[in-house]
Amino acid sequence: MNVELTPSAFRRACESIIKTVCDVYVGDDLIVKKMLAASLGNGNVLFEDYPGLGKTLLAKVFAKAIGAKYNRIQFTPDLLPADITGTKVYRAGNFELVKGPIFTHVLLADEINRSPPKTQAALLEAMEEKQVTIEGETHPLELPFFVIATQNPIEQEGTYPLPEAQLDRFMIRLCPGYPESVEEEMEILRRRISWRKDDPTEDVEPSVDLATFKAMQDFVESSIYVGRSVLRYISELVRATRKHEYVEVGSSPRGGLALLKISRAIAAMEGRDYVIPDDVKLVAVDTLAHRIILKIERTVEGVRPEVVVQDVLREVEVPKGDEEGRGFAR
Ligand SMILES: Nc1ncnc2c1ncn2[C@@H]1O[C@H](COP(=O)(O)OP(=O)(O)O)[C@@H](O)[C@H]1O
Ligand SMILES: [Mg+2]
Q1: How far, in Å, from the CA of 150 to the mean position of ligand 2?
Q2: Which residues contact 147 (CB under 8 A, 6 or more apart)?
Q3: Domain range for residue 244?
Q4: What is the CATH number of the domain that holds 262?
Q5: Cβ(62) to ligand 1 under 6 A?
Q6: pLDDT tens for residues 21-64?
Q7: Which contiguous run of DSSP H or E holds residue 142?
Q8: How large is the average pLDDT for residues 303-327?
Q9: pTM as predicted
Q10: Using a 6 Å cutoff on CB, does residue 55 contact ligand 1?
Q11: CATH at residue 47
Q12: pLDDT value at position 38?
């Protein structure tokens, strides 16, 4: 089934997904918008924050809202790679493949940093190449596929920080943060009363079906123009993270690609068919900060990589228009 979307149908679908999630999750809808932008490019999303801030809830309700199949894996210290990918078992003279929970559309990797690196690494191939190798045999995953992982901040006890290679494969890192006001805090309590249970996700109706979600992905891929001046802007931002005085290792080119993909989705949600620098600025910190490794002395001082991205956003000259003659002023 092939669905084609008009720009307004695309926007309506986005608004509906965001509303479905925000009817459950109390907080800034911008976080849902950014999450949706990443998922439209099959990008992996990392939620990083303290326990009890609704990370698992956000991941589950989002997967439900986009009409996708999803599986959740609770990462624990004794979780094995085969518990994720699957294994071959000997049955009646044959080796049969028993597919693991990774064979789904959205994989919720909950508390990913509670498992040792070898287990975390079982996700790497799927996250980047959308395929899984089990005992030497490679199996493609059905698209859409992406991972939504959650983790507690690395200072917490009993955790294995994600290695850089793994972090780089997350298109975006989002920190939901604490409720902003007593009203928000109360709203969480009120919703709990109206749900009559802790987890309302099974009662959530998807906002779109899977065919529509795929059409939304195609829409961003095929309809959103990015001018040369914006490509240069993205590239200069990424390069500036590498030269910053606090930085040991800056963003990879993969960081630039992530910025490109998410900016296009944001532009589409704003109802434009071309990207402007504001789209890039909106997601630059979320897209680049987790790829930056600071010099050890800066880390010890408590500097955060977000600061580097904020600095480069101030330093790099913002283009005023593109070669097609469009102005970027708003
Ligand atoms: N912003 C929020 N909106 C709605 N419910 C929330 C929010 N923050 C926390 N909760 C509720 O608190 C509990 C813990 O949330 P959970 O998603 O398990 O947190 P985390 O995964 O971040 O540790 C859940 O019952 C969830 O419904
Ligand atoms: Mg959780």
Answers
A1: 7
A2: 44, 45, 106, 107, 108, 109, 123, 126, 127, 170
A3: 224-316
A4: 1.10.8.80
A5: no
A6: 999 999 999 999 999 999 999 999 999 999 899 999 999 999 99
A7: none
A8: 93
A9: 0.94
A10: yes
A11: 3.40.50.300
A12: 98
